[in-house]
């Protein structure tokens, strides 16, 4: 009997016990990323095992964040499960807005969740969300264009190398752009990228006294470098590009390099989706020699709002969707390269998964992110591409709009930074910092 068959039988046995409870219809709010869309295709497997039906509310990243935040803070009760991340989970857990996941079954093996993911999704040692997939960020690049430019990508490049390579790979007449980076405004869109990047340049959001730092030379260097690079080697209309838009550009063969979520690796190397699938290499996110790389740490995770009337069914769904068995289900149907990455230690110990070309670089990227010490200079906050305080999402969304406007050519870097400094200072004073 194969491991997969045994897992399936075990799951079916558990399901037979579970369906003793009454069948429910649960509503799941999720993001429109590829792995989540894939999960929806397997809903019948969950229903067959548990009797529960699932209604999906699938939203673009910025919209999802707004909807779930509004719902949970107003106790709206629209959703039984929410897709949230490492920013929201500890804050909402501390507010008692989420159901603790401290009684998941032994078979689920909570200790198998990667320590970085488990830590980021807990408050005071209690898990409040289970990672569906985990990610850092890394460089995905066209090996053929790099070779044609006469360059060789190091495993751990500097930003200087990335800039020079991007310019060398750019051929705007042929619609090939040396680098595609996020420009769409949003605290989890362009500000995730720019905050992580700023760490490598020695910048920080706040000093140890919670004073905003956008008037620092390090932030000026970060933003100026980004704007200059995008002007020389980026695609037109970049101020509207987030994760999905850049993924599409890369798959069409229009990007020499793309620095973004490690989870994108399975999509850019999938020959059914990507015209450059056989010509993709991977490297760590760049640094500037100051000791920090420009990569983030994130998990899209499933959590249960405290107001739900369907807690038991919601827990069954979370156990199904984030289990080892679910990973094996996807692997059996779609191959190991397409399973949700970055969540479980056992996946990276699996010899079959170790053959996947991006597996090691993904794990190395995740392990190199340090939310407790994210910056070159000391800071009073936790978080790599975000600051783990409730005010951050609102402030960073506004700052993101200023930086996106600078990318669109509507204002200078100095103007954007001055506005960012002023609005951050005002918001933090109003919040009592």
Outline the structure in words.
By secondary structure, the protein is an alpha/beta fold. It has two domains: 3-128 and 297-359, 3-Layer(aba) Sandwich (D-Maltodextrin-Binding Protein, domain 2); 137-296 and 371-430, D-Maltodextrin-Binding Protein, domain 2. The protein has 19 helices and ten strands. The chain has helices spanning 3-18, 34-40, 43-50, 61-73, 88-94, 115-120, 143-148, 159-169, 190-200, 217-233, 243-251, 265-268, 311-321, 324-334, 345-349, 351-354, 359-368, 392-407, 413-430, and strands spanning 25-31, 53-59, 81-84, 122-123, 126-127, 130-142, 177-180, 255-261, 280-284, 297-303. Strands 1, 2, 3, 6, 7, 8, 9 and 10 form an eight-stranded mixed β-sheet that branches. Strands 4-5 form a two-stranded antiparallel sheet. Helix 1 packs across helix 14 and helix 18 runs antiparallel to helix 19 (413-430). Residues 1-20 have low confidence and may be disordered.
Give the SSE layout.
Layout (H helix, E strand, L loop, with lengths): L2 H16 L6 E7 L2 H7 L2 H8 L2 E7 L1 H13 L7 E4 L3 H7 L20 H6 L1 E2 L2 E2 L2 E13 H6 L10 H11 L7 E4 L9 H11 L16 H17 L9 H9 L3 E7 L3 H4 L11 E5 L12 E7 L7 H11 L2 H11 L10 H5 L1 H4 L4 H10 L23 H16 L5 H18 L3
């Amino acid at each position: 009997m194969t491991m997969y068959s045994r897992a399936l039988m075990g799951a079916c046995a558990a399901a037979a016990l579970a369906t003793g409870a009454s069948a429910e219809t649960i509503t799941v709010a999720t993001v429109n990323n590829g792995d989540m869309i894939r999960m929806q295709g397997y809903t019948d497997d969950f229903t067959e095992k548990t009797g529960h039906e699932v209604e999906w509310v699938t939203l673009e990243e910025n919209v999802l964040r707004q909807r779930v935040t509004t719902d949970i803070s107003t106790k709206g009760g629209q959703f039984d499960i929410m897709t949230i991340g490492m920013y929201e989970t500890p804050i909402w857990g501390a507010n008692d807005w989420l159901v603790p996941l401290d009684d998941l079954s032994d078979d689920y093996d909570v200790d198998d969740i990667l320590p970085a993911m488990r830590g980021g999704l807990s408050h005071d040692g209690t898990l409040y969300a289970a990672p569906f997939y985990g990610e850092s960020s890394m460089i995905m690049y066209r090996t053929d264009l790099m070779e044609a430019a006469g360059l060789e990508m190091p495993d751990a490049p500097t930003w200087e190398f990335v800039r020079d390579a991007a310019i060398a790979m750019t051929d705007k007449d042929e619609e090939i752009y040396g680098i595609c980076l996020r420009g769409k405004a949003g605290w989890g869109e362009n500000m995730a990228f720019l905050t992580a990047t700023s760490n490598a340049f020695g910048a920080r959001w706040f000093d140890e006294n919670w004073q905003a730092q956008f008037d620092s030379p390090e932030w000026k260097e970060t933003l100026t470098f980004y704007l200059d690079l995008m002007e020389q080697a980026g695609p037109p209309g970049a101020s509207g590009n987030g994760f999905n838009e850049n993924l599409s550009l890369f798959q069409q063969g229009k990007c020499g390099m793309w620095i973004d979520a490690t989870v994108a690796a399975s999509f850019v190397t999938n020959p059914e989706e990507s015209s450059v699938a056989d010509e993709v290499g991977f490297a760590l996110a760049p640094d500037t020699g100051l000791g920090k790389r420009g990569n983030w740490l994130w998990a899209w995770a499933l959590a249960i709002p405290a107001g739900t009337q369907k807690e038991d069914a919601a827990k069954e769904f979370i156990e199904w969707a984030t289990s080892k068995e679910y990973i094996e289900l996807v692997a059996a149907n779609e191959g190991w390269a397409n399973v949700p990455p970055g969540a479980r230690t056992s996946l990276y110990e699996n010899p079959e998964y170790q053959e996947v070309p991006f597996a090691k670089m993904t794990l190395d990227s995740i392990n190199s992110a340090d939310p407790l010490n994210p910056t070159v200079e000391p800071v009073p906050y936790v978080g790599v591409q975000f600051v783990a305080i409730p005010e951050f999402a609102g402030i960073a969304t506004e700052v993101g709009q200023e930086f996106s406007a600078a990318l669109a050519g509507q204002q200078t870097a100095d103007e954007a930074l001055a506005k960012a400094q002023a609005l951050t200072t005002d918001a933090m004073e109003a919040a009592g910092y």
